[in-house]
Amino acid sequence: MNLILVHPEDLHGDGVCRLRGRRFDHIRDVHRAELGTRLRVGLVHGGIGTGVVFEISESEVTLQVTFTQEPPPPLPLTLILGLPRPRMLKRTLQSVAAMGVKRLILLNGYRVDKSYWQTPVLTEQGLAEHLQLGLEQAVDTVLPEVLLRKRFKPFVEDELPDIAKGTRGLVAHPYNAGDLPQAEATPTTLAIGPEGGFIPYEVEKLSQAGLVP
User: Fold this and answer.
1) Which of 40, 107, 169, 206 would bridge 164 by S-S if both were Cys, CB 3.0 to 4.6 A apart?
2) What are phi and psi of 177, to 5 degrees?
3) Are residues 42 and 4 in contact, defined by beta-carbon separation less than 8 angstroms?
4) Burial code of 13-33, b = ≥16 C-beta within 10 A, e = fewer?
5) Could you tell me the pLDDT band of residue 67, with boundaries at 50, 70 and 90?
6) CA distance linking residue 105 with residue 96, whole number of Å
7) Cβ–Cβ under 8 Å, residues 164 and 156
8) What band does 86 get if pLDDT is binned at 50, 70 and 90?
């Protein structure tokens, strides 16, 4: 944890922040904090700054926090991802958040097992938990927007053309594909298939919406 993320509800006026649970355990056991210890903190969807420990008990730490820096700029990417199995989804959410992606669309497909959509990871709480782990590692405070799209064809036909408009549209697919383009700071819409990849029909539909294999 390279950043202690705090929420607005953790703040109690005049820059006082009280933390319990996982964050308290980390501050106590990993940082081995004591009175006066300075920690790097960030406010969810806000700034980054410093928290100074001025009270610590068996179950709670109280910090005096100030936020003086802006979070890092977002990656100019909309990522469309074929929903992976729950175990891989947890890691993927953390990696996506750490890389600076701010818009993630989890998409159904022919090779996506229907049972994957039932995982508690896809609840609001489950998504936030794993996205925050990524932000903590990357020293970022802005949670990605996550959209769930359980119907492939309506999404690709009705939504994707507007999403991809004005961006560099790419679909990661190894067959009948062009060369990998050079990395550049260009707004990009990137689709990556589920385990096993997109089927040919899906690649065709994505191409029609403006994404190049």
Assistant:
1) 169
2) -115, 155
3) yes
4) eeeebebeeebbebbbeeeeb
5) very high
6) 11
7) no
8) very high
